[in-house]
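User: Structure tokens for this complex, please. No commentary.
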Amino acid sequence: MSSIFSQATSVPATEPAVDLARLDRILEEFKSVRGSLIPILQRAQDAYGYLPRQVLNHIAARTRYPLADVYGVATFYAQFHLERRGKHLIRVCDGTACHVRGAARNVEILEKRLGLVPGATSADYEYTVEVVYCLGSCGLAPVAVVDNQVCGRLTPEAMIHHLQTLPQSKADNRNGNSSHGS
Amino acid sequence: MAREVTSPAAVANITINGRRLQAVTGQSVLEAATAAGIRIPTLCHHPRLPAHGSCRLCLVEIEKQRALQPACTFPVSEGLVIRTETTQLTEARRFALQMILSERSHYCMFCTASGSFENTDCELQRLSYEHGLNCWDYTPHYEQRWPVDGTRQHFVMDHGRCILCRRCVRACSSIAANHTLAVHQRGTRTMIGADDDVPFGRSSCISCGSCLQVCPTGALSERHSAFTGHGTDFKRHKAVCQGCAVGCGIEVLVRDNQLARIEGDWDAANGGLLCAAGRFEVLQPKPPRIRTPLLRERGKLAPVSWERALDCVAEKFRRAERVACLASPRLTNESLTALTLFFNETMRTNEVALLYGEAPPLNIGAPASLADVADSDCIVVIGGNPMEHQRVAGYLTRRSLDHGGKLILVHNGSTPLDRFADLHLELEDISHPGASPFERLHATYHLRAQSLNQLKRMVETALKPVVLYGSGLSTTVYAAMRTLPVQARFLPLIAGTNTRGAVQLGLSARPVSGEMLYLMAADDLPNPAPLPNRQFTVVHAAYQSTWTDSADVVFPGLMWAEKNGHVTNLEGKTLEVRPLILAPPEMRPAWKVLLQLSERVGRSLTYDDICAFAGNRQPERSAV
Amino acid sequence: MNPKVTVASDWLAGCAGCHMSLLDIDERLVKLLEVADLHATPITDLKHPPASGVDVGILEGAVNNSAGEEVARRMRQCCKILVALGDCAVFGGVPTLRNGFRCEAALRRAYLETESTAEGRVPDDPELAQMKTARPLGDVVDVDIHVPGCPPSPDAIFHVLTELAAGRRPKLTGKLLDWH
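Assistant:
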């Protein structure tokens, strides 16, 4: 039975506690800017890597945007992700040129090596694999973008090479690189 | 006209179907056509909601426009030439309907809204009949299941019947100002959702039912009246909700002398908006009805005739040294008048009080109406919690905030309005430390002078400030309110349906003493706490309760939908209450019982006595 | 005198309510029989249309298994004008309620999980029809006339049959058009 006092939340039990101080700084910046919901969401996603439920709730609590609208905007646009993604984002292009030049093989090798189908994130949150449509680099087909780096004329072997040269959080602790907030 | 024209009306000469018309700049083609009596089919449009233009049923041909245009959003302009009925338009509308029908599970045969052309409650179905649709051109996807959300207590959402018209979303924001609903996802995955996609019953939904009232299909359907009829199976009566002191206008649907459904009256001061108590809870099952007088003999209550019961009570009245009366603030002005007259004149006592209910001083300043609350640019809520006790007034407060209004909250504890406050001030409890338990219930709160000044300064900058104020504030606070700028208007947060009517008769909630107690309980549903012990208790009530169980004599009373009379709401408006259903046989209205008692006691009152005393608040002879 | 229009009918996944509604035309049946020959129907003695075919075929009920598909196709072949009678034939109707559960789950529930079943077995005799998604008639064969209603009113049915007998295409409007 609903109560006029209830605040909605569907924060999953598995969602780790989020440091909202960073979000507060973003909200402060946009305090008197009208129509700023999308920029706020973009900056929040940059800061946290994705949009945890706690972040959406906090945006609604601190602004005049109702939670339902915040969630509506976040789910409307493909650029917003409400689930935690891997540290390394591998986007394989399956547009016409890449498709005929063997994009499928690159998707397959990812499934073989990482066990990930398109859209999936690895259990250790290291990798996310996505299939996208036409990155506009058809001259370099087949193309994939690995952590914002465009890799053209990609063979399955070259794909593996790129994966191996990614900064590993387990293997390479000295760097402690994060691909967030770039 | 649904939209307000704020600038001086500029006329636009337009032509619809060859007819030359004068429209007003700012109107949509639909509004201009409707004003001229020309009908254009619509589905997502609703006269009380902002126009949306998503269903494409209202497409019209407009000269010089490349494509067909939706009339509900297309603005009129000088020289516009419009056609609303052509073969192309009929085909376009049929196509729009077929597209809508193909998207989800529109199975009419097991839907509560479904009916024949004259009697259906489903606007999609009626339009389909109108356009001669006798089959689906595009088969829906059979295996897809759309969720049915039954987590709300009083009404159910079947997403399979949703046409994504967004009326519910618009109602939730512009009518209820609660903003629980929005559209989530996109494309074929688009869904109406609550908050961040939680079940409706666990969301910030307040169950006001505004979305339910505007839903054009059977997607949102009420549990209580589901499958009990539709359309003209019900008789509709305009009435007044007696749930609280706001007195919202309602439309009650009645069938076979049963209350089937309550809807908000669009034409009343509340503009169709209700709360869960007035729309749903009032129809929930009640305790057993008291249908005959009851007399306690040899320890047990047994049914007796009216004559026997009246004789017994009159005898007790004659012998009693001190009698007292407690009355429910749900009673009508007529019953309260009869009651005070009976006890003051026939019984010669002033021990007459309200059972509960509070009103703050009513002479603070210019009165505010409910419309003033919604229109205000600065609202002060001091010493009360309207979101709980005068809910529609609270919802209208939120509506004013949506339009940029400011909110000053002065109270302790937490209320649902807290997070919207621009200024939050705290009260100090200055009740006497040695106060009795009764006095503790009516504590007195004070606001420091410094805070009062802060409040005053903010109100001074407003053009249309409204103060919603409760009881139990110190003298200084009420005095300070009286000195607020002249544009300030005041709405007392009164507790109890007709407390204002009672207060105008000089009644208040205070302890009364007497070894014989006459409790006029109306159709109150009391908390289980028993009454204080008296030597002899008479209870006049509609429903069985711990009060009637412990009484010596019980008189059966009317419930709200059976009464005839008037109540005075918190705005000070006297609202007429008319019977919607017939009371069970053998019922007598309260004032009549008191007249008959007065005869037997030996100092009769007459019907005319009551009328003379009540002024124009006359009990109707034809009641019941 | 004009030759009578020949009519055959059958029912698929239906409750027979539409045929009951046909009978509810009551004494108008006499008038109808002056212009129509109700040849093979589930409620007359003959069960199969003649090899030479009929003018009007009527089918009630949704198509929800392979047997229904066969009956529908046969009826389509042997009639000039095919009428889908009732909400089940026109829209799929009540039988579609089980579509969301898929066939395997429905069969399991019906033959294995019901409370009164002691030792259940899903029938698998090759002679039995195979369960399919419940669909309207129009998804399986071409339908000429749709008569919605649950059931369609006797007035609507009488109107459709007499119009067809007069060689006209019936139009359902106003009180005759009811999906309810």
